Amino acid sequence: MCRIIALGFAATCLALPASAQDGPRLFQVPEGCEAFLTVQSRSCMVSHHWTCSVDPEGTHWRASVDQDGAFYLSFTDAEFRWLRSWNLRSGGTDTLIEPEEDPASLSELLSTGSDSMVFSIQEESGLGTFRRDYTGFDRLTGETVAVDGRELQVTEFSYQYDTADGVRRTQGNQFVHEGWRLFFGGLETVTLPDGGTFEGNYSPMEFAEPGEQGFLTMQPLYDCGDTMSAVETAPVWRVSQ
Fold first, then answer.
1. Terminal CA-to-CA distance of the chain, rounded, Å?
2. Quick count: other Cβ atoms within 10 Å of Cβ 47?
3. What average pLDDT does the structure give for the chain?
């Protein structure tokens, strides 16, 4: 089913309107599926979330879009385990190797305040097939934030995996919405095996559910260059204890 959806998704992307004269460019989910959320985030990204009737209960899809179109597709379950993902530009795929030694569990995070994880991913790309062994944790900080009228819980997280050159680590803060059972990106730092680092801010700025303005838009709004500099100054979120 995953492969069929991925192929159908790629075909749908090609069918989207190509210019403003054709009307607003809206994201289209595959037949038999229903979108439930659009998220505008920092770093010039808009993401769309949907479910499909033929998939196991609790699973959902996410596609991430930048100024050049869709670039990432993922399939996760109700515990937010990374079941499968696709790099839509390089053609690479990541598949969770089951069973995991210590599966990621959103339920455990929400009930206890922390969750550890030990799992492996099979990564396939033009460079070959690799196994990546991950270890990490998510932890609630006790803070909540208000983003576009929705309350999110703040997390701190860290995960790492070994490469041929050494350990690659990602750490920072993310956000969780308990009702949607979704994680959203935040301020993240990646440390490379050679000690080099780079940072990203993928914090959510706006949410749109069915019927709301911006739902299924293909246009990212935040941090998209000089033309969006006025929007970029908007507050990211408000913290409450």
1. 43
2. 23
3. 88
**132 token code pair:** 């990546």
- Which pTM was predicted? 0.86
**pLDDT level of residue 232 (50, 70, 90 thresholds):** very low
Q: How wide is the angle at C-alpha 22 spanned by C-alphas 21 and 26, nearest 5°?
A: 125
**Which DSSP helix (H) or strand (E) runs through 224?**
none
Q: How many CA atoms lie within 13 A of 149 on its CB side?
A: 5
For residue 9, what pLDDT is reported?
A: 52
Distance of CA 214 to the CA centre of its chain: 18
Distances (CA, A) of 63 to 74, 204, 205: 7, 15, 17
- 3-state class (DSSP) for residue 107: helix
H-run or E-run covering 192:
none
Q: Is the pLDDT of residue 126 over 50?
A: yes
Torsion sign, CA atoms 194, 195, 201, 202: positive
d(CA 19, CA 22): 6
Number of H helices, E strands in the chain: 3, 15
- The amino acid occupying position 188 is E
Longest Cα pair distance anywhere in the chain, in angstroms?
A: 52
pLDDT digits (tens, 9 = 90+) for 36-95: 999 999 999 999 999 999 999 999 999 999 999 999 999 999 999 999 999 999 999 999
Q: Looking at the domain covering 2-15+30-231, what would its CATH class be?
A: mainly beta
